[in-house]
Amino acid sequence: MKIFFKLGWFFKKERKRYLVGVTFLALTSIVNLVPPRILGLMADQLELGHISWQEYGMLILAIILAALLLYGFRYFWRRQIWGGSAELELQLRAKLFAHFMEMDRTFYQRHRTGDLMAHATNDISAVQEVAGEGVLTLVDSLIMSVSTMVAMIVFVDWRLTVVALIPLPFLAWGAWKLGDQLHDAFDQSQAAFSRLNNKTQESVSGIKVLKTFGQGKEDTAAFQQMTAETININKRVFKWDSLFDPLGTLLIGLTYTITIIYGGLLVSNQVLSIGQLVSFIAYIGNMVWPMFAIGYLFNILERGSASYDRVEKLLDEQPAITDQHANPQLDAAAINGDLSFHIKSFAYPDEPQIPVLHGVDFTLKTGQTLGLVGKVGAGKTTIIQLLLREFDQYEGQITLNGHDIREIPLNVLLRAISYVPQDNYLFSTSIQKNIAFSKVNSAEDAVVAAAKKSDLHNDILQMPGGYNTLVGENGVSLSGGQKQRMSIARALLKQSQLLILDDALSAVDARTEQAILQSLRQERAGKTTMIATHRLTSVMKADLILVLKDGQIVERGTHEQLLAQQGWYADMWQRQELEEKVGE
Ligand SMILES: Nc1ncnc2c1ncn2[C@@H]1O[C@H](COP(=O)(O)OP(=O)(O)OP(=O)(O)O)[C@@H](O)[C@H]1O
Fold first, then answer.
1. Which residue pairs from 1-7 have beta carbons closer than 8 angstroms and sit at least 24 positions apart in sequence?
2. Where does the ABC transporter domain start and stop, copy by copy (predicted)?
3. Which residue's CA is the closest to the ligand 1 atom numbered 19?
């Protein structure tokens, strides 16, 4: 029952809807008492043998009228209560999705995609059932059982009612015991479902890798094992359910037996008429559903409660990156490309004892280009991530136009930056929409211009539907180089103060790279650009090049200055030049 309190905020908000729904539900239960009473009256009249056709017709008419009323009442409560549960589903889903959007990347490192999907689907459905089926079952069974009991006492006999309903408390006891076990079992079952979801998601996403490594059989076996484990956990739920259902049947049977023995005795002693006994037996029929409903209700409520706890736990997680220190006065006009970066030390939150950056200091003026080079794992992407505010807990300060980036509202900061990451993501939609994603409602001309600047236009024209070709999961596959250039087109369309390319040209050939860099230089004149790369030709024209090693700047200068220093850069330059020549 706790779940009704947990969902108090929702029922309060939707109280009008639920009041109307519950009223019609109560009317339904009360009208349900009429047919058994009429049956009893008919039986009495038949026994006495003096029922007229007219009386008979009136009674049948009353039953038809009751049936029609029941139809109308059921329609109204269904509309209200099912509508309420759909509303809860909508609100919870919207809340969860907004939360997902707000969370930073550490949240996505803690929770896997399949797990989050399980929360957004299975758990929310279980909670939604509480507001629909749960409310219905609780109210209906309560009103129906109480009103039936009153009808049994008023229209038939209080002694028969007390004796016949003796088995009921045992059922309540069974349901209470069941509830205890179910909460725990459902919690484990939902967690197992999350794990299974994760496994499915990972296997489907990684299907190409699985197949190329010939791991299909092994993965299928691992999946089967996980499914078996999930089913075993679910069996605990079935076990408790299976123990309860036969108990209900047994106790109902007992009620009928008691009624026939004791009710028969009362009829033969002329305390009751045959008609009253017929009504009573029909009333027991009305009690069957509420009796079973207890177990069913506990099932819905415990399941909903376990799922709601899981959803709440997720919603309670706070993003580490917030606008807590933001100055709302700072808007896009306050930001330019003057960047200063002073990081004394930074470590990733999951490995706080290992500093990844130390003593990284540099400044860039609007319009300048920065090159970040260095070995794999040197810290290039980490520098970019700090600028994008993916992590905040560093010692030092990063400023844009003199404002600490933590004081710039996050949406203003991110709008001022175009970022081309190492791994590209394509949405399942057209090429046009994939490019225009960075600036929705862009004119077609602007999209084409961005594609031309990133040397993608001719490739697109050769695709079956041109700019309308579908890409992503449901569409054609693009080559690695095409994906990278699409990502660059996206970033260029945004025309922001700062453009960051993180190893964004690694999959294109040297000639294409130079063509793109050339158009970038024209496009980005007067704006700041950062290029992290392994290919030194990408940064040779940069105003400042930083060579990173183990999170520290080991060399800095222009291309010519670095060549003159005869260090890692000069060495790498020679090697890459040689490789190029050998390649040719
Ligand atoms: N999320 C993370 N949590 C913990 N450590 C991380 C995380 N991301 C990166 N690292 C570590 O930080 C160091 C710097 O990584 P980073 O990705 O910045 O290097 P990089 O120079 O961009 O490398 P690459 O050229 O391969 O892209 C590496 O040792 C890496 O293992």
1. 1/301, 2/305, 3/127, 3/130, 3/134, 3/301, 3/304, 3/305, 3/308, 4/130, 4/134, 4/301, 6/305, 6/308, 6/312, 7/88, 7/127, 7/130, 7/131, 7/308
2. 341-575
3. 377
Could you tell me which residue, 53 or 561, shows the higher pLDDT? 561
What's this model's pTM, rounded to 2 decimal places?
A: 0.76
Among candidate residues 335, 526, 337, the one with its CA nearest the CA of residue 412:
335
Q: Please give the sequence-ordered ranges of beta strands (E in DSSP) within 509-581, or none if there are none.
A: 528-532, 544-549, 552-557
Ligand 1 pocket, residue 101 CB under 6 Å: no
Whole-angstrom distance, CA of residue 139 vs CA of residue 132: 11
Q: Which long-range contacts (CB under 8 A, 24 or more apart) does 458-466 make?
A: 459/485, 460/431, 463/431, 465/430, 466/431
Give the pair of three-digit tokens for residue 353: 């004892």
Nearest residue by C-alpha to atom 30 in ligand 1: 377
- For residue 346, the CA-to-ligand 1 centroid distance in Å is 12
In whole angstroms, what is the distance from residue 452 CA to residue 435 CA?
12
Helix axes 135-151, 15-31, angle to 10 degrees: 30
Domains located in the chain, CATH noted: 2-316 (1.20.1560.10), 329-416+497-584 (3.40.50.300), 424-495 (3.40.50.300)
Report the nearest atom of ligand 1 relative to the CA of 382: 18
Ligand 1, atom 4, residue with closest C-alpha: 348
Kindly report the protein residue whose alpha carbon is nearest to atom 24 of ligand 1: 376
Burial bucket for residue 392 (CB in 10 Å: 0-12, 13-18, 19+): middle
Q: What is the DSSP annotation of 214-244?
A: T-HHHHHHHHHHHHHHHHHHHHHHHHHHHHH
Report how far ligand 1's centroid is from the alpha carbon of 394 (Å): 15
Please write the tens of the pLDDT for every residue from 9-51: 999 999 999 999 999 988 988 888 888 888 888 888 777 777 7
Q: What is the pLDDT of residues 335-391, one digit of tens each?
A: 888 999 999 999 998 888 999 999 999 999 999 999 999 999 999 999 999 999 999
How far away, in angstroms, is 348 Cα from ligand 1 center?
9
Gap between the Cα atoms of 420 and 417, Å rounded: 10
Alpha carbon distances (Å) from 137 to 184, 204, 298, 514:
22, 39, 10, 70
Ligand 1 atom at shortest distance from the alpha carbon of 422:
27
CA of 99 to the centre of ligand 1 (A): 27
Q: Give bridge partners of residue 420 from the DSSP assignment.
A: 501
Most distant CA atoms of the chain, gap in Å: 123
Tell how far the Cα of 356 is from the centroid of ligand 1, in angstroms: 8
Q: Identity (one letter) of the amino acid at 305?
A: S
Atom 3 of ligand 1, nearest CA residue:
348
Q: Is the CB of 533 under 6 A from ligand 1?
A: no
378 CB under 6 A from ligand 1?
A: yes
Counting from 1 in the atom list of ligand 1, the atom nearest the Cα of 372 is 21
The residue contributing the CA closest to ligand 1 atom 9 is 382
